[in-house]
Write a structure and sequence with these properties.
Strand content: 5-15%
CATH architecture of the largest domain: 3-Layer(aba) Sandwich
Order of helices and strands: EHEHEHHEHEHEEHEHEEHEHEHEHHH
Number of domains: 2
Distance between the termini: 17 Å
Shape: globular
Largest sheet: 7 strands, parallel
Helix content: 25-40%
CATH class of the largest domain: Alpha Beta
Strand order of the largest sheet: 3-2-1-4-5-6-7
Number of helices: 14
Structural class: alpha/beta
CATH topology of the largest domain: Rossmann fold
Length: 392
């Protein structure tokens, strides 16, 4: 069996999920072809992973989450589909797996090849809530029309390209993430969904072969206690926000490990701070008392599996939703109050700036504690459920 894996390139975590699936399929004797954008090609080359290079909608603006720019010009959608169908004609796979890639199901349908997809529950039409808000929270009703307009407007733009390809229109752009079967990399208790045909939870996909982590041993040995891990992914937001979080963690007496994606320009690590490039998150979380992260689901589920309480400082609504899900499980919290997103991550930095030091400290210290005693029941329960549902 030959499988073509097409991950969306807006987050390295999507590539990591694809690489986890690639390893699992190859172990079962399948032939796997992997594709990624030109921007992600050096990362795969560094890992010695053979791959093909394809354009990606994300290249419209480099956004770490879907934006209007991805769908504004139907010709962009057409160019990506044309490149994908050309690769399908060359590779002739038995199955396509699209990972948070809006064009993959369309290209596969045009080629007459089955397409399954991998996505998170909160970015599918079956999710009926408002990203980042519990019902009744201030801002809930203000955020809904912005998100609904985004889904419908981008769906209408994509539908112009679909019409040119002889494909049916979509009212909600999230419909383009659905495949013959749509696998969910989160868990039912983390993000409850309305029942929908074709949805199947596989749980978090574990992959930890980030380049350079094998040399992290000496730095790990230098870490002190109590330890906070500050991990903001590969899309660092405004400099002042993560810098202030670091300042407060140090003031609270934490040793700090800066993990993944670098750190804002002009802020060199200080005493009590150890910086990692691609961090060995499993090793870090095994030692950590606290994680502060951007809310990416791969990082969140690694923390849940390790029983580490997590505070989320998001850059976009999907990440804010993950913070809300952690709160519901009793395993973490949103670091800033529910905040209406109008298209710029600056709103979250502004919300953080509006918090005084005492309130920010209280949010950090109010998380469930991990220490020498048994884990608090909600953390232990969440860790067990994630362990039961590890994917791939």
């Amino acid at each position: 069996m030959r499988v073509l894996i097409l991950p969306g390139s807006n987050a390295l975590s999507h590539l990591a999920k694809g690489l986890a699936v690639r390893e699992a399929l190859r172990a079962r004797g399948a032939e796997v072809v992997f594709a990624a954008s030109a921007a992600r090609s050096p990362f795969l080359t560094r890992l010695d992973v053979p791959h093909r290079v394809l354009p990606d909608l994300q290249e419209a603006d480099g956004g770490s989450a879907p934006t209007f720019a991805w769908f504004r010009h139907p010709d962009r959608f057409l160019r990506v589909v044309q490149a994908e169908t050309a690769l399908l004609a060359e590779v002739k796979p038995d199955l396509v797996l699209g990972i948070f890639r809006f064009t993959a199901p369309t290209s596969a349908a045009l080629a007459g090849i089955p397409c399954d997809t991998l996505a998170c529950g909160c970015m599918l039409p079956a999710f009926r809530g408002v990203l980042g808000f519990a019902p009744g929270e201030p801002g809930h009703e203000a955020q809904r029309p912005f998100l609904d307009t985004f889904y419908s407007h981008c769906g209408a733009r994509a539908s112009r390209a679909l019409a040119a390809l002889g494909r049916p229109a979509v009212e909600d752009v999230r419909s383009l993430l659905l495949g013959r079967r749509t696998y969910l990399w989160d868990t039912p208790d983390f993000q409850p969904l309305a029942p929908a045909p074709g949805l199947e939870h596989v749980g978090p996909l574990a992959w930890d072969r980030w380049p350079g982590t094998e040399a992290a041993g000496p730095a790990l040995d230098r870490l002190g206690s109590p330890l906070a891990v500050l991990s903001l992914g590969t899309a660092i937001g405004p400099d002042a926000a993560p810098g202030r979080i670091l300042d407060r963690l140090l003031a609270l007496g934490f040793q700090v490990a800066l993990a993944g994606g670098g750190f804002p320009s002009g802020r060199a690590p200080r005493p009590g701070v150890t910086a990692f490039g691609f961090a060995p998150m499993g090793d870090l979380l095994a030692r950590a008392d606290l994680l502060v992260c951007h809310g990416g689901q791969q990082t969140v589920f690694e923390a849940l599996a390790a029983g580490v309480p997590t505070a989320v400082f998001p850059f976009h609504p999907e990440q804010a939703q993950n913070g809300l899900c952690l709160e519901r499980l009793g395993a973490g919290a949103r670091l800033v109050p529910p905040t209406v997103f109008w298209g710029s991550s600056r709103v979250y930095a502004d919300a953080l700036a509006a918090l005084g030091d005492a309130e920010l400290d209280a949010r950090l210290m109010g998380l469930p504690r991990r220490g020498p005693l048994p884990l608090p029941v909600p953390l232990a329960r969440a860790a067990d459920r994630v362990a039961e549902r590890l994917g791939a």
